[in-house]
Amino acid sequence: MHNKTITELAQSLRAKEFSSVELTQHFLNRVNQHADLNAFITVTEDLALQAAKVADARIAAGTAELLTGIPMAHKDIFCTQDVKTTCGSKMLDNFIAPYNATIVEKLNAAGAVNLGKLNMDEFAMGSSNETSFYGAVKNPWNKNAVSGGSSGGSAAAVAAQLAVCVTGSDTGGSIRQPAAFCGITGIKPTYGRVSRFGMIAYASSLDQGGSMAQSAEDCAILLQAMAGFDAKDSTSVDVSVPDYCADLNKPLAGLKIGLPKEFFTADLNADMAATLETAINEYKKLGAEIKEVSMPNLKYAIPAYYVIASAECSSNLSRFDGVRFGYRCENPADLNDLYTRSRGEAFGKEVKRRILMGTYALSAGYYDAYYLKAQQVRRLISDDFKNALNEVDVIFSPVTPTPAFNIGEKIANPIEMYLADIYTIAINLAGLPAMSIPAGFINGLPVGLQVIGNYFDEARLLNVAHAYQNATDWHKQSPSL
Amino acid sequence: MNTQWEVVIGLEIHAQLATKSKIFSGAATAYGAEPNTQACVISLGMPGVLPVLNEDAVRKAVIFGMAIEAEIAPYSVFARKNYFYPDLPKGYQISQFELPIVGNGHLDIEVEGETKRIGVTRAHLEEDAGKSLHENFHGSTGIDLNRAGTPLLEIVSEPDMRSAKEAVAYMRKIHDLVRYLKICDGNMQEGSFRCDANVSVRPKGQIEFGTRAEIKNINSFKFVEKAINHEVERQIEVIENGGRVVQETRLYDSDKDETRSMRSKEEANDYRYFPDPDLLPVFVSDELKAEIKAALPELPEAKKRRFTTDYKLNDESATILTASRELADFFENVVKISGCESAICANWITGDLSAALNRADLEITESPINAERFAGLVARIADDTISGKIGKQVFEFLWNGSESADEIIEAQGLRQITDTGAIEAIIDTILAANEKQAEQYRGGNEKMFGFFVGQVMKAMQGKGNPAEINKILKAKLA
After folding, report:
1. Which of A172, B219, B287, B454 lies 20 to 30 Å from B61, alpha-carbon distance?
2. What residues of A act catalytically?
3. Mutation test of the interface with chain B: which of A238, A315, A379, choosing the one with the most B Cβ atoms within 10 A?
4. Are A449 and A403 in contact (CB under 8 A)?
5. How distant is the alpha carbon of residue B352 from its chain centre?
C-alpha cells in the first residue's frame, strides 16, 4: 500500500480494496517500525485513525476529494490546533496552538489524514536537521548521512514511505535540499502562493510553504489543496490557482531551458556535473532546447541571504520571551533574568547565532551597510532572474553541491554549511518557484535537479518535472530499510 | 520665569483611533473589559500568526492629514520597532518609521489673542502596547493585552512652541480636531489621548536648540502645562548652576509635581527599525483621497468663520459654539427649528444650557433638553410669551421633565400678561396703597420708579410684560 501514488490510493479507497482506516494503520505501523529515522516529533495515532474513519464515511457518501483518506504529515512548523507544535525547538516543546495554520485547515477540509508532526531544524534554521532539539533525522538511503534540512523529517518520511505526501517549508532551500538528499520530489512555490498564516516565521519575506512527495504528480495534488489567497496573510497573493494536474502531460517540445553559466563551472563536483548532464540530455530527447544564461549577481546571494534572513529572524523570534507561552526558566530573579535565561536555555546554538547576526545587521550604524545593502543585492538578483526568464521558460541547476554528507560532518563549521546553500538561496531572494526532482545517484546517495520557473508558473514546473518522471524512474527508487 | 531664556517645545501626541477593531486584527478595542478578554491570538503575538491592516485606521489617518492640510503619502511603510517589554507581545511594535502616512502639515493656535501657526512634522500609524499591572500579583507583574494592537496615530509637531501655554493650546486644538473628525474619542482618563513633550531651553537670540529632555506619557492638559513649566525651571536651574542638560527621557509625577529621569541617551534602546515583511506598503490612491476629502466635515476654523459671518455671532460665542461638532449642530438646529434670531439662541445655549451641562458634567450629546425642546423655549422668549426671567423657570422644568416649553408655560400659568387693562388695574391698586412713595417720585426721587416696577411685578407673579408696565407706570406717575 505504501508505494502507490495519491491517485492510485484514491482509486483503491473508492474501490474498497482497503479503507482509509486500514491504510492509515498501515502507515502508522511503518512510522513506528522506522522510528529510528527520527522523522516524526509527534505521532497523532488516535487523531489519525479518527480522521480516517471520517474519511471513509465521506468516501462512502461519495463526497470525497482526491486527498480524502490519504495519510500525510505536517512539518512541525505548521500550527495544529490541540496538537503540539514545536518548530524543532525546546522553546516550544510545551506549545499547543489554539489555531490551525491555513494550510492545515485546508488539508483537514480536504479530508487528508494527518499522521503527525515532522522533525525539522530548530525554527527552520539549518541544512541538515542537526539543529533540531529532537535530534538529527537519518537519511533513509544511508543512516549515517543527514536527511538535509530544514524539512529533513518531511523528506525522510516520504523517502521511507512513512507518509504518502507531506508539507514542508522553504526559506533558503529547506524543501528542495532535503528532497534532493532523500531522493524525493519537492516544490517551493512562488512567494505568496501559499498562506503563511500559522506557519511559524523564520524569515517572513523568504518563508514559503510547499509540498513534498514521491512524484511531481503527487506534489501537484497536494499543492493544489494548499495554494491560494488567504485574507489572514497580507503577503499571500490574490492570483487564481490553475489546475496543477491539467497540464502535467503537456509535451515539452520547444521548451527553452536556461543553464546559468555561473552555476555550471569547473568548480562543480564532477559526478554532480555528469549526473545533471544525463538529465539535461533526457530533456533534449523530450524536445527541449538548452540555452546558456548569465546571472552575474548570484555570487552575492549567500551573504545577502544570511543578512536578510538573520535580520528578520532576530525580530521574529523576539516573541519567544518566556512571558506568554513556550519555555520559561525556573525561578527568574527579575525580568531581565526571565528573558535571558528563558531564551538562553531554550534556543539552540544555530538559532542564537542567527539572532545575534541579525541583531547586529539591524543595529544603528550598521543598518545601511548590511540590511539595506543586502536588500539592494536582492533586487539585483531578482532582476538577473527576470532577465534570464525573459529568454527561457525554466532554469536548471544543481540543488546541492554534493549528495548528503554525514551526520556530524559539517555541524561544527557553519560557514561551510551556509556555502552549501549556494544553489537554492537565490531563488528565495527572488521569490520564484522552484522544484527539486530526483535525477540519479552518487555513491548510493540520491541527487536532485533543480527546476526554477517564473512567478506563479508552478504548473509549468510540475509539467517539466512530470515529463521527466514519465521518461525516467529515479523517483521510483526507494531505499531498502 | 527668567526672561533671558527661551523655551522650545515639540509635542508627540498619541491619539487612539476610534476603530471598532484593532489595527492588525479583528479583536475589539472597547475600553474596560476584563483583562485579556480582548486579546486574540494576534494580540497575544502567538507563533505563526500574521497582522492584517485595518483599512479604517488608514482612512482615519488620512482624514486627519487632510484636516491639517498635510501631504498624504501615496506610499507608506510599516516598520518594526524592536524592544523587549512584557506588555509588548511580539518583542516589537509595528509602527511607521521612514515613510509615515501623513507628512508635513500645520495648525493655527490662539494664545492671548495672537494666532500662531504650529507645524506638524508627520503623523504615523502604529499599534499600542498592552498594560503591565503591578498590584495584587504577590510580587509578580500581571499583563493585560486588551489594549495591545489598538490603533494609534502619533502626531509629531515641529519644535514651534515657545511656552507651556502654547503647548496646551496646541494640544487642545488637536484634541478638538480629532473629536471633530470623529477619529478619536479624546478620552484622556482612558488614555485615548496622551502626549510626550520634548522640552529644551536656550538663551534668547541663540539659533541652535538646547539639549532636550523628553517627558513621557502626559495625560491631561493641566499636567502638560505643569510638567513643561517644571521641566523648564529644572533645566534653567541646571544651566545657571553651571551644569549641562543631558538628553534623556523623563517621567512626570503628577503627585509630586516633578519630572524624574527614566533613562539617558546612552541607555536608550536601539530599536533596530526595519520594514515589516509581514505587511505590504500602504497605497493611498487619488480616488480614496478624493472620496475622503468630499466626506470631510466642516472644520472648526471654517465653521467659526461661517458662524461669525452667517449668524453674526461675536468671536467669543462663535468660539464656544464651534468647540465641538455636536454643540455647533445643536446651535444650528435650535436656530432652524425656532426661527429666531441667532443671537438669542446663542445666548441661551452658551449661558444657561452650558452652565447646567457643566454643573451636571454632561456633554451636549447627553443634554436632557434636545434641540427641539430648547428651540421651543427660545421661541417663546423671543415672541414675548414669557420674559427672560420666566424663561429661566421654564428652563428648569425642561431640564427636569419631558414636556415642551409650551406645555410648561400653559400648565404653570407662566404666560406673560400684556393685557393693558389688567396691568392698569393692578397699577392703580398699588399707587393707591403707596401714595407717599408716589409723592416722593413726583418730587424728584427717580429711584422710586424701580420700587413701583417691583411691586407690580410681584403682584403679577413676574408675568407682567415689563415694557407695558413701564409705559403705563410712567404715564400714571406723570
Report:
1. B219
2. 75, 150, 174
3. A315
4. no
5. 20
